[in-house]
Specification:
The structure is a homodimer. By secondary structure, chain A is of the alpha/beta class. Chain A is built from 9 helices and 10 strands. At the A-B interface, helix 1, helix 5, helix 6, strand 9 and strand 10 of A face helix 1, helix 5, helix 6, strand 9 and strand 10 of B.
């Protein structure tokens, strides 16, 4: 079953999780696929199709059980691991991510920040002290950091990646605009912020 | 034909465009789907399938003509419009995006920055002076700004959106963690940075 979930569906699961989380906080027990779709701007058909691919969570004519479905999606996404993560590179983007509230909503724990810039090391962001990259390996082991976010300039990205490969980090989320590779069993997601703007351009060009 | 391109394919087109752009700068005339796939970590089959959906650009047993394919993808993405865009909210994330080089590679022009914070208005980021949000409407008209990126706190996001709706902006890329809606024919992409981290979590949970 695990391998049958498409990348596109996986990409929508965090949205489903967050929407269910809000619905749960609103005191909703059940949510219809229509209401679910309305909150997300996704068609109810798409939602039903996505959710059908990993089990039966709805009651025909009633809707989805909010808490049950939320927990199941969290489970599929592995959120119950409450991953510890670190950010390497606390320039503007790194600082923005260090303050991003949705990571906490999803159960991720930011436990360390690293930078090479001596004028930044020792400062505090979101209650966490920035440490030098020279102590990265030992801090990763000590704080059991499983995920690292790379937000360093391209020129430093490979060095940082090599350091992370040597450490006990298991996954990397790379924002440097360079495709980095890691050996198995590590896993890397190369982020590309220009996709959103290009997607917007695609649609605007068709609205003329 | 236009409507046959899936969202997932559209999401990969900017990656194809950028890879072809680099290949062109490297002096390559032709790129094989194997090499193309290797550079992107996407299977050659996927690439062939994506590209087949909007025309014939390859020569069997040879590869794709780099410049021709790059131009065609740029055309599909509407990049030849060289959209003028502005960033509203120059905190950490806004500042990071204002310095993001890939937008320029794709042909987007950053022409204005706005903020409500008086201590920020008048400062310069990436050569552009930050202006007060009170002049947004007139600057949008004057500078022919077609796209706005919203990187303000949730509490300000709706106000900013209302202002943008009143102005002549056509598209919004929203990074505030709140789902914003706009009336047609405007178009909005609501960005969710937690998707990358969740996708990483999904894969790590399966590597155990």
């Amino acid at each position: 079953m695990k391998n049958e979930i498409s990348q596109a569906t996986i990409g929508r699961l965090p949205l489903y999780f967050r929407t269910l989380n809000f619905a749960e906080k609103d005191g909703m027990d059940i949510i219809s696929s229509d209401e679910f779709g309305r909150r997300l701007d996704i068609t109810p058909e798409q939602i039903r199709k996505d959710l059908a691919s990993f089990g039966q969570f709805g009651k025909k004519g009633v809707g989805y059980y909010v808490s049950e479905l939320k927990n199941r999606i969290g489970n599929i996404l592995g959120l119950e691991n409450h991953w510890n993560f670190a950010i390497v590179g606390v320039g503007h983007l790194g600082s923005a991510l260090a303050n991003y509230k949705n990571f906490i909503t999803l159960g991720f724990n930011l436990v360390a920040l690293f930078d090479t810039d001596k004028s930044v090391v020792g400062t505090t962001i979101n209650g966490i002290k920035v440490q030098g990259i020279d102590v990265l390996k030992e801090v990763v082991a000590e704080r059991k950091i499983q995920i690292a976010i790379i937000t360093v300039p391209v020129s430093e990205a490979q060095n940082v990646t090599d350091l992370l490969i040597e450490s006990e980090v298991r996954g990397i989320w790379n924002f440097s605009p360079i495709k980095l590779s890691v050996p198995k069993p590590m896993y890397i997601v190369n982020e590309d912020l220009s996709i959103g703007l290009s997607s917007l351009s695609y649609h605007l060009a068709r609205l003329d």
